[in-house]
Amino acid sequence: MPQTGRLSFGPCHASINEGTFVIGNAHVERRWRIDNGLLYPTSFRDLAAGREWLARPASAPSPSPTSPVPDEARAVHLSGSGGRAGAAEAPSLVAVLTASGATLTLTYRFQIFPEARGVVARLRAERRAGAESGPVEPARKLPPSESAGPTGSEGGTERQPAGEPDGWDLLENLDLSPRHLRLTRVTLRDRTDRHNELVFEDEWLLHPNEGPLALSGNLFVLEDTLTGDGLILVKHAPLPHARSHPPPHDLLVRPRDRGVRFVGHGTGPGDGEGDPFALIAYRGGRWGRIEALQTYQRQLRAYDPARDGRFLSNTWGDRSRDGRINEPFLREEIEAGARLGVDVVQIDDGWQRGRTANSVESGGVWNGFRNVDARFWEPHPDRFPRGLAPLVEAARARGLEIGLWFAPDSTDDFAQWQEDADTLLALHRTLGVRHFKIDAVKLRGRMSEDNLRRFYEAVLTDSGGAVAFDSDVTAETRPAYFGLMHAGQVFVENRYTDWHGYWPHQTLRNLWKLAHHIDPLRLRMEFLNSARNADKYADDPLAPSRYSPAYLFATVMFASPLGWFEVSNLPAAYFEQAAPLVQVWKAHRQALFSGHLFPIGDAPDGTAWTGFVSLAPDRRSGYVLLFRERNDRTHWSAELPLPPDVSYTALVLAGQGSLSLSEGRLAAEIPQAQAFLFARFTTYPPCPLP
């Protein structure tokens, strides 16, 4: 019999009692039956909705290791603690359930945050070296679903997907109770140098005649169509194409009996520590799903106004590459950046002594950096003969910071991860640099994934969470949107007017679509110098030059903005039109980013009414950003998730037009096409300005 014990931290609790493991908070509660160290799900309750999601106890354990476990006795022990488990995380309760046998130890790590509506789990399986293999526990075959009835051959044989699990390598094994469920598979794309449409949603209204579904992905949603209540399954791993040990499928669903199997720890046949995963409940349909996902991501990386949502500039977008990088040029960038309102002037590839394959000079490398030059990551002696300290001081004197580009060495599965972490920490300690763009990453196996994670966590831990990473996902094989959610921003795309590849509505579209699933604060999104290469967009009504500089900044100000240009090369219009908007945004961004951010309107396509709304948690105030793209509709309205019996007053902060809110509905007018409106609204009488 497992020990009896209880842990608690604020509203979070975990306990073992009479062979049952329980973990929960004020929002949700989960239960498993413990059988010789294996866990069988018996309950998932959404406490706010007052509903039980599971139709019956599970017949196979989950989480379960990748291969059968020895038939031996295992002692179960509960330990854990409350507080901040990671340098960038919100405080949480971590409960560790250890099942120890003579040859195998299973370690279940559960984490629950006070504000999240779900539980994070992770399984580690360790087999004692040299232990002789003996009898194993019989495979828990998942029960077959009933026949769907007569088919053309009258046999009624069930269709089985390839890779039907045998009860092992399961993350979740759930039989759901609602009869009417909508399943959504969300597919996200990285490698944005080759892809531009980044979000796809496939939907099934589950029906008994539908055969078993075998799906790949990181994010799945099951929603009760009658109530709008739902469950979200999230796998904290690279996208399927980038994983070292992807399972044949990540989700197996049997529509007839609503059986759901979340599959694949990502360790391969050798066991070890699997990828974390989460099961999250929500209410309120689409609005509730977006809110639950954002709230969850904000627990993994708690919003820090002094670190997150900063406006970065980066000269690489003007395609000079490293050809202009030196101290005099960067001093010009600092001065111009201060005029525009930039927070961080980020120096891309070229600040360092070593030469990469992206240099204007030939002979550079894209891997094995210290093998070429042991001093590769020192400041370039010719470009910065006095080092970087004078630039850092010049930036600080103008109220800015300096950020840097860096490429951890992928050679030998990031074998030099500690040296790379020490390099960044030295820059952070000696110069105060805390914003790093991470590039050139190449994941080649599970060891690569583990060592890259160690690199990030070493820097975050030693800096107390002060360092912020922008992880480039534009090429190669990288952790992307779900692999390192606690590390910082995702550098989403490189777009250049030089190659006729930047349109404001396309970048806005990617932000809008990603924002349904990824916290916009985690997305580094760019706007460019629209005066460059205008001739390449001749007669194009959606050309970058057709929009004001303020509009261009507005397209990314509900994300973490990136000025993808040489600030000192901008035309005067940017300082006359965009800079005032930047100052307005800065005055309100902490309140804006402290709310839940929702896409509204239609997906941007150059002709839509579209935008975003930020709602304070108490729904008493918020912000609206609307875009009237190229269309002839001066008026637009939409429902918002606001209480219909509350009165609001709106104040236009920037842009043009007017806005009102009544009975939970927004109504707006923007008199000109290709224009925007930014407004704050509060309950009446209004709340004080931030």
Query: Biggest β-sheet: count, sense, barrel?
Result: 10 strands, antiparallel
CATH architecture term of the largest domain:
Alpha-Beta Barrel
CATH topology of the largest domain: TIM Barrel
What is the CATH H-level superfamily of the largest domain? Aldolase class I
The portion of residues forming beta strands comes to 25-35%
Shape: globular
Terminal CA distance: 56 Å
CATH class of the largest domain: Alpha Beta
Please, what is the average pLDDT?
A: 94
Beta strand count = 36
Q: Cα-atom Rg, whole angstroms?
A: 26 Å
Bin the helical content. 10-25%
Parts with pLDDT < 50 across at least 5 consecutive residues = 145-163
Number of individual domains: 3
Which structural class fits the helix and strand makeup? alpha+beta
How many helices? 11
Based on the model shown, name its key terms.
36 strands; ten-stranded antiparallel beta sheet; 690 residues; 11 helices; eight-stranded parallel barrel; Immunoglobulin-like; Beta-galactosidase, Chain A, domain 5; single chain
